[in-house]
Write a structure and sequence with these properties.
37% of the residues lie in helices and 9% in strands. By secondary structure, the protein is an alpha/beta fold. Bound molecules: pyridoxal-5'-phosphate. The site of pyridoxal-5'-phosphate (PLP) has 13 residues, from helix 6.
């Protein structure tokens, strides 16, 4: 074994102790650390033939790199829609690294850590007062959650024409209606081959609102003359935190054939507030929902989940199935996350959220 690595293993407890103390010092000092800085480094250092060992690497990190760190987990940081990390979520994050599971299958490959992800999703459904008719999974952020959801929506759209877009590529114009989508949904349209310009902008409600004007939405639906479409709606727009009227959309869904996606990256958490949960009333009728945990749930980056109706599991597997993976009958029974989302290998990303939910409960 490499002698420095051996030294590190022998000294592991001390290394982790130093790291822990450094973390505590940072968080205790968060009020005094700037929210932005102009400090820079030359990112082109040479890779040494011999390593430094963790303690020396930590010293170099502290000298050169740690001054780049801003107080983004603190309360004075207003860049992005952001969040900090609760103590429990840090426990979960550290343990996710230490256990280092490759969270995929429920029954195979020598580990069942996907069950922890199922359990966490189940807790989140209870938190958000949503039914367990949704299949959920963790991805890095709301962008990837939107991507996963809209990927399945694209497959659904093709099926309305008897086509398999996942296999054969897109051969129909995919109709997208939306009012004030987050820029990440537009990025997804680009990534999914639909085209970042190929959507119809529905009017917003008068009076400086960002929510869909439902009458104009129905006008636009009628213009499609019965053709299917994908609706990208918002539970919390980033500029003004506006919410689309989900009860009205649910009524339209009874009349027209569309995939209903809700981007609730931060606004979905309105569901936990007696004062604001009317804003998400009816959202359980959506086909897919995006929520970020690294915003309002205050777990470390990278943590978001998608919720997609279990009825769509076959479309989801068609979209994300590994082409060389044997198809194992019922995809819900022989479940493997690599067949339902973009990534193959993935960390136990649910664990920080699991710890926060267990540690602080609904009230927290
Ligand atoms: C933050 C946000 C996103 C993008 O989320 P990431 O976690 O940065 O990928 C998408 N939609 C909304 C409404 C957001 O607030």
């Amino acid at each position: 074994m490499n002698s420095i690595l051996k030294q590190d293993l022998d000294n592991f407890e001390n290394i982790l102790e130093k790291t822990k103390q450094q973390g505590i010092d940072f968080l205790n000092d968060i009020e005094n650390i700037p929210t932005s800085n102009t400090y820079t480094i030359n990112p082109k250092t040479a890779l040494n033939e011999l390593g430094l060992g963790s303690i020396e690497a930590l010293k170099e990190f502290n000298e050169r790199l740690s001054p780049l760190m801003v107080s983004s987990p603190g309360p004075r940081y207003w860049g992005f829609v952001t969040g900090g990390s609760t103590p429990a979520s840090i426990v979960g994050d550290w343990l996710a690294s230490i256990y280092d599971q490759n969270t995929q299958a429920v029954k195979a490959q020598g580990g069942a850590s996907a069950l922890i992800e199922f359990e966490t999703i189940n807790l989140l459904l209870q938190l958000l007062d949503l039914p367990d008719t949704f299949l959920g999974g963790f991805v890095t952020g709301a962008t990837m959650s939107n991507f996963t959801s809209l990927g399945v929506a694209r497959q659904w759209f093709g099926k309305q024409f008897g086509k398999d877009f996942a296999k054969d590529g897109i051969s129909e114009t995919v109709n997208i209606l939306t009012a004030t989508p987050h820029s990440s949904s537009i990025k997804c349209l680009s990534l999914l081959g639909i085209g970042s310009q190929n959507y119809t902008t529905v009017k917003t409600i008068e009076g400086n609102r960002e929510a869909l004007d439902i009458a104009d939405l129905e006008e636009n639906i009628k213009k499609l003359e019965g053709k299917p479409f994908i609706l990208i709606s918002s539970a919390g727009t980033v500029n003004t935190a506006d919410f689309d009227d989900f009860e009205a959309i649910a009524i339209l869904k009874e009349k027209y054939n569309f995939w209903w996606h809700i981007d609730g990256a931060f606004g979905g958490f309105a569901a936990v507030s007696d004062k604001y949960n009317h804003l998400v009333k009816g959202w359980e009728g959506a086909d897919s929902i995006t929520i970020d945990c690294h915003k309002w749930l205050n777990v470390p980056y990278e943590s978001a989940f998608f919720l997609i109706k279990k009825d769509h599991i076959n479309l989801q597997v068609e979209t994300f199935q590994n082409s060389n993976a044997p198809y194992l009958g019922n995809p819900l029974e022989n479940f493997n996350y690599l067949n339902v989302l973009p990534e193959n290998s993935r960390r136990l990303r649910a664990l920080p959220a699991w710890f926060s939910l267990k540690a602080y409960g609904k009230e927290g």
